[in-house]
Amino acid sequence: MSSQTAEPETVDKAFVEETGEQPRMPGHESQMDDKPDWEPRYPGSGRLKGKVAIVTGGDSGIGRATAILFAREGAKVAIAYLEEDDDAQFVADQIEKEGSEALLHRGDLGDPEVGKALVRKVIDKWGRLDVLVNNAGEQHPDEDIRDITAEQLQRTFQTNIFSMFYLVQAARPHLKKGAAIVNCTSITMYKGAPILLDYSATKGAITAFTRSLSENLVKEGIRVNAVAPGPIWTPLNPFGGQPPEKMKDFGKDTPMGRPGQPNEVAPAFLFLACEDSSYMSGQVLHPNGGSVVNG
Questions:
Q1: Within 13 Å of residue 208, how many CA atoms lie on the same side as its CB?
Q2: How far apart are CA 190 and CA 226, in angstroms?
Q3: What is 44-285's CATH number?
Q4: Alpha carbon distance 207, 256 (integer Å)
């Protein structure tokens, strides 16, 4: 038996930096030729008037559409983003054009200190927190499970589910009766995705987290729900979240025969964040182009 120390099978540190895969994700929406549709499609009706919301991954894609829709509905919105300063500033400008206020917070939410700092900034600025949207995520396609490194595995879980634990822990002292948490899971949790093994596993964890956290908080008057989008046209996929050769057919396998747009998903987050869904907790909505899934 060799006396050499074996290589560790897991990553022996609490925080893993971005993987070396290129291009780095989630990517800049400003650099996309075919830009996603983020604009709210109807006038606001004050459904979040006076509320304060955090939207993670709010600089682009579903997060961008949700943040701007929340602003149209009267919420002040804090945007958490990784490093895409141009996209984040664009969203802040749009929020202000809606007559509301924005706060930008740059950093990696897989680090618990980043989430704590975000919540502190929100409370210092606005004195309350009513809605937490956990939307930030990353994915790395791999045809073979043996190609998923320990670093990538931990990184994907760190970004997609650990960050939700960290943010809820930081936000919990400030969430009062009537507050709402909305998590972003995925159709991959229900249907599986053969090239997104680690990503799909995190989405299963998010759904279980949503249901369990709902049971934990419902008697406090805090509702917890989730949205499980299907294939949505956001920077995540063309910037490395899908193999390039698959992008020309992205979303065509849905019953509607096309990918969804972020502004077709944002209303689901709004519904779960406002009092329209006051009798719902522990549930999942499915804007997925017509695919029928259970749960």
A1: 8
A2: 13
A3: 3.40.50.720
A4: 25
Q: Is 199 a catalytic residue?
A: yes
**φ/ψ of residue 52, rounded to 5:** -120, 130
Cβ atoms of 155 and 101 within 8 Å: the answer is no
Q: How far is CA 41 from CA 30, 108, 266, in A?
A: 21, 31, 10
Pair type for strands 76-81 and 52-56: parallel
Domain ranges for the chain? 44-285
26 Cβ contact list (under 8 Å, min separation 6)? 57, 60, 61, 82, 84, 137, 138, 234, 235, 236, 239, 241
What contacts 24+ positions apart, CB below 8 Å, involve 239-246? 239/23, 239/24, 239/25, 239/26, 239/27, 239/28, 240/21, 240/22, 240/23, 240/24, 240/25, 240/27, 240/140, 241/25, 241/26, 241/138, 241/139, 241/140, 241/141, 242/141, 243/141, 243/195
* CA-derived radius of gyration, the chain: 19
Q: What is the pLDDT along the chain (295 residues), one digit of tens a residue?
A: 444 445 545 556 678 887 665 445 556 665 565 678 889 999 999 999 999 999 999 999 999 999 999 999 999 999 999 999 999 999 999 999 999 999 999 999 999 999 999 999 999 999 999 999 999 999 999 999 999 999 999 999 999 999 999 999 999 999 999 999 999 999 999 999 999 999 999 999 999 999 999 999 999 999 999 999 999 998 766 544 556 566 677 778 999 999 999 999 999 999 999 999 999 999 999 999 999 997 7
Q: Which of 81, 166, 190, 199 is catalytic?
A: 199
Chain-centroid distance of CA 162 in Å reads: 12
